[in-house]
């Protein structure tokens, strides 16, 4: 009958505990860290199993052989621990084949030196047997490489513990319990190993590290069962936060405390046409669009939660930025980034595109005015003259006024429908269309509706494409130019130029000009009961140009008339 020593019995308990934990970890594949935790536990079991063989051997040669075989488990443990900690905490971008191969160089060299005997005098200087009350033990004299692998092991253990230490303070109780159990499980054998290396044991030749694996096994079993290690994992949180940042629809810039750009998300790259590598490292004032408009005077001076301001005009309280989709209004928020000492270490700048919100707000204001003011005025007018027609059906003046008022209501409804169609989710307002085709169509339509007017295209038309919504813009501009011209023969001219991805379309007339109050309301972007437009046509122009990512401006024409200039990006091109 085989007689086992108390040390061997204790080690068999360690093997049983470690094997059970390894099986539980293996069953959780492919959860983050499951494979590496399994490998770590297998390394512990391997080391312990062959230590049993070493202790049960009676000759020096046999003990040396089983000692050398143990190195496989010894060197696997720290590498598996670090890779497990990285993957488990969501840092799996570092767990790549090149990284694994690099981490394995020192361990593989150690195993080769041990198994082949090439390490004699380098890994181990000498070996001998000594008799102790617990039996014969193998005593080794470490060589220089022994301290290299020992230092390497402790270094990987320390680095792997750092991300887990961060989870100990986590708000989520399961993660605190998991990380605490893991740290206890790895600290016990590490401490015992340090004691052995420093020679602080009363029994020479007895490495207590495998015995400490009993603590590791219990801790890992507790983490797997009580705290649901590998069942509920913090790994997706870190990755999800990165994904949220990277794929957030709003452009985001991250600055350090000195005002340099240290990061930006994909939306910032595409929205503003930036090069990520060229932008990182630049001063914010040179890289962040409109930075000085909301940064309170320069780099690093933006206040927490500041809202930017435009350089006057429409959308006051927002910054207007030209990007890949043309000119858009943005609400900018600046948030301080603080460390554990509540000191500011940087800022996060977020651009919220408020173009759609402002457009909806404008449409509601304008339509409210149309129905409460324009429609009511016209219906009152019709009702008044209908009463006159009731007493005198032959009153030609009253009949003409009623007819004209009804036509104005019809025209207003058509323009309102055009505005609604522009924002219809199924509309094709941004489909690229040849500029020449749009100008020709607009001129022909204006001539057909106003045969007494002279409408023409001046100069050559660039061979470029623009968003199809420009057709509605030109229709309303030409209609306004002719309708509001009191001359006997109204004239309007279209001209276009293109430069560096942008198109400027000018609509000129020889009428009495547009009241300054009309385009002042457009530039301000809002209407009030006392300050509002007379119709809806110019609003349709503004909304259409905004949809195309452009701007519209008004100038007087010499000697009479107005020149309205529409500047939009060419379709299908990126304009920084």
Would you mind describing this structure in some detail?
This protein has 576 residues and is an alpha+beta fold. The protein has three domains: 6-235, Rhopdopsin 7-helix transmembrane proteins (Up-down Bundle), CATH 1.20.1070; 248-352, Beta-Lactamase (2-Layer Sandwich), CATH 3.30.450.20; 358-569, Histidine kinase-like ATPase, C-terminal domain (Heat Shock Protein 90), CATH 3.30.565. The chain has 19 helices and 14 strands. The protein has helices spanning 6-27, 34-56, 60-88, 97-103, 105-116, 144-168, 173-197, 209-225, 235-247, 266-271, 276-279, 284-287, 291-294, 355-391, 396-422, 435-449, 470-483, 516-524, 537-547, and strands at residues 124-132, 135-142, 252-256, 261-264, 319-323, 326-338, 344-353, 432-434, 454-457, 465-467, 491-499, 502-509, 551-556, 562-569. A five-stranded antiparallel sheet has the order 4-3-7-6-5. β11 (491-499) and β12 (502-509) form a beta hairpin. The longest helix is centred in the middle third of the chain and has 37 residues, at 355-391. Residues 297-316 and 529-533 have low confidence and may be disordered.
């Amino acid at each position: 009958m085989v007689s086992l020593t108390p040390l061997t019995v204790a080690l068999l308990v360690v093997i049983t505990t470690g094997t059970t934990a390894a099986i539980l970890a293996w069953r959780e594949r492919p959860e983050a860290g499951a494979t590496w935790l399994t490998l770590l536990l297998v390394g512990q079991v391997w080391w312990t199993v062959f230590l049993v063989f070493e202790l049960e051997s009676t000759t020096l040669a046999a003990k040396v052989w089983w000692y050398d075989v143990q190195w496989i488990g010894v060197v696997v443990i720290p590498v598996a621990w670090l890779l497990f900690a990285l993957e488990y905490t969501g840092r799996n971008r570092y767990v790549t084949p090149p990284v694994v191969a690099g981490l394995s160089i020192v361990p593989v060299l150690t195993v080769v030196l041990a198994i082949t005997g090439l390490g004699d005098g380098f890994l181990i200087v000498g070996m001998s047997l000594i008799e102790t009350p617990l039996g014969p033990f193998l005593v080794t004299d470490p060589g220089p490489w022994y301290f290299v692998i020992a230092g390497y092991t402790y270094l990987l253990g320390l680095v792997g513990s750092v991300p887990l230490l961060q989870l100990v303070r986590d708000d989520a109780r399961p993660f605190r319990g998991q990380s605490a159990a893991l740290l206890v499980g790895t600290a016990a054998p590490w401490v015992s190993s340090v004691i052995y290396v420093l020679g602080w044991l009363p029994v020479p030749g007895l490495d207590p590290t495998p015995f400490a694996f009993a603590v590791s096994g219990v801790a890992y079993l507790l983490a797997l069962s009580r705290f649901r290690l590998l069942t509920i994992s913090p790994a997706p949180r870190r990755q999800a936060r990165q994904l949220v940042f990277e794929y957030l629809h709003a452009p985001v810039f991250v600055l350090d405390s000195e005002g340099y750009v240290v990061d930006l998300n994909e939306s910032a790259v595409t929205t503003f046409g930036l090069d990520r590598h060229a932008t990182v490292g630049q001063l914010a004032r040179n890289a962040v669009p409109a930075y000085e408009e909301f940064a309170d005077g320069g780099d690093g001076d933006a206040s927490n939660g500041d809202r930017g301001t435009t350089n006057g005009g429409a959308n006051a309280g927002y910054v207007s930025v030209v990007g890949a989709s043309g000119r858009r209004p943005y609400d900018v928020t600046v948030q301080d980034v603080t460390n554990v000492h509540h000191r500011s270490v940087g800022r996060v700048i977020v651009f919220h595109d408020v173009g759609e919100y402002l457009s909806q707000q404008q449409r509601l204001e304008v339509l409210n005015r149309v129905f409460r003011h324009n429609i009511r005025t016209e219906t009152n007018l019709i009702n008044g003259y209908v009463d006159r027609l009731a007493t005198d059906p032959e009153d030609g003046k009253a009949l003409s006024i009623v007819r004209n008022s009804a036509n104005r209501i019809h025209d207003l409804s058509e323009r309102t429908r055009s505005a609604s169609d522009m924002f219809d989710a199924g509309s094709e307002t941004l489909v690229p269309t040849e500029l020449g085709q749009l100008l020709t169509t607009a001129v022909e339509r204006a001539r057909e509706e106003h045969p007494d007017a002279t409408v023409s295209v001046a100069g050559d038309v660039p061979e470029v494409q623009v968003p199809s919504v420009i057709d509605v813009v030109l229709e309303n501009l030409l209609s306004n130019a002719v309708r509001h011209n009191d001359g006997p023969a109204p004239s309007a001219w279209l001209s276009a130029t293109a430069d560096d991805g942008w198109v400027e379309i000018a609509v000129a007339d020889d009428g009495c000009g547009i009241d300054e109050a009309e385009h002042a309301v457009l530039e301000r972007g809002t209407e009030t009961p006392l300050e509002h437009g007379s119709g809806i046509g110019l609003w349709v122009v503004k909304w259409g140009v905004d949809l195309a990512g452009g701007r519209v401006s008004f100038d007087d024409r010499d000697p009479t008339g107005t020149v309205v200039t529409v500047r939009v990006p060419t379709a299908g091109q990126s304009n920084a």
